[in-house]
Amino acid sequence: MKTVSRILASILIVAFGTQALAYDPQVDGKKHPRRKEVINRAQNEKGKNNAAAANGQITQQQANKLNRQDNRIERQEQRQAARNGGTITKAEQRRDNREENRVNRERNQMEKQDAANGKTSGN
């Protein structure tokens, strides 16, 4: 009877041990909805910054500044995920989104100021 229980215990340890080894929170966590939303948002914002610079709505230097801010938000999200086992909390997601909103408003302000002043990347 003791041998049967030892065998069952060994099987359970092996079964659950291999599943634990197969799980990588850094890889699987990027699929988490909150994390995925923050990552995609930062990448979309960088695309908008570059498009605004290409269209002459803001200068390339302004786009570079905005992209650095978006990169900082992405790095911050990665640090948060590393602390939380591959995901981020709702509070962290809200904070990251507030920061992206600020960068977005800053780009819109730059576009308005440059349009009012007649500045473009070609001038």
Distance between the termini: 87 Å
Radius of gyration: 23 Å
Shape: rod-shaped
Q: What count of structural domains?
A: 1
**What is the average of the pLDDT values?**
84
User: Considering DSSP H and I runs of 4 or more, what fraction of the residues is helical?
Assistant: over 70%
Give me the oligomer status.
Answer: single chain
> What does the largest sheet look like?
none
Series of secondary-structure elements, N-terminal to C-terminal: HHHHH
Unreliable stretches covering 5 or more consecutive residues: 18-23
Count helical runs: 5
| Beta content | under 5%
What is the SS-derived class? mainly alpha
Q: How many strand segments?
A: 0
Secondary-structure blueprint of this entry?
Elements: H1 2-22, H2 25-28, H3 33-54, H4 60-83, H5 90-117
Helix pairs in contact: 3-4, 3-5, 4-5
Description:
Helices cover 80% and strands 0% of the residues. The chain is mostly helical. Helix 3 (33-54) runs antiparallel to helix 4 (60-83) and helix 4 (60-83) runs antiparallel to helix 5 (90-117). The relative contact order is 0.14.
